[in-house]
Amino acid sequence: MGNPLTDLAKRDDAIFEHGVSLVKELNRIAAGLQVTIENPVSNTFPHLPGVRKLLRDPQWRLLAGSHCSNLCSADSGKWPQKDTYYLMNKVPRKFHLDCATLIADT
């Protein structure tokens, strides 16, 4: 688990790890910065070194949910669930993700 097999996967992991380094530096410079990193739910994401590194800081938490973040007043109807991990800092301990327009059991 978490062992990239293709050159593309290896590059993607390296880019993610570099992004984590950038986020850590930005948080050092701008202490009030809130960051959210989204990734589709998978067995590997929680085990990536960068994810583990961020979660060692008690300000970070890994949440899972389904979202409809692009909805606005012009959108109507129901939306299928998109199971997503949210790696977030500076959110309240009881913070949770909800979306009232998701189709149940999708």
Quick structural gist:
The protein contains 2 helices and 3 strands. It is an alpha+beta fold.
- Report the biggest beta sheet as strand number plus sense, adding barrel if it closes: 3 strands, antiparallel
Q: Using only CA atoms, what is the Rg?
A: 16 Å
Number of helices: 2
How do the strands line up in the largest sheet?
A: 1-3-2
Number of strands: 3
Distance between the termini: 26 Å
Uncertain runs with pLDDT below 50, 5 residues or more? none
Gross morphology is globular
Which oligomerization state do the chains in this entry correspond to?
Answer: single chain
How large a portion of the residues is in β-strands, by DSSP E? 15-25%
How many separate domains?
Answer: 1
Helix content: 25-40%
Query: Which whole number gives the mean pLDDT?
Result: 84
H/E series, N to C?
HEHEE
Structural class, judged by helices and strands?
alpha+beta
What does this structure look like?
- The protein contains two helices and three strands.
- By secondary structure, the protein is α+β, with helices and mostly antiparallel strands.
- It has a three-stranded antiparallel beta sheet, covered by helices on one side.
- It has one domain (7-70, 77-89).
Summarize the topology:
Elements: H1 7-29, E1 36-40, H2 49-55, E2 60-66, E3 83-89
Antiparallel strand pairs: 1-3, 2-3
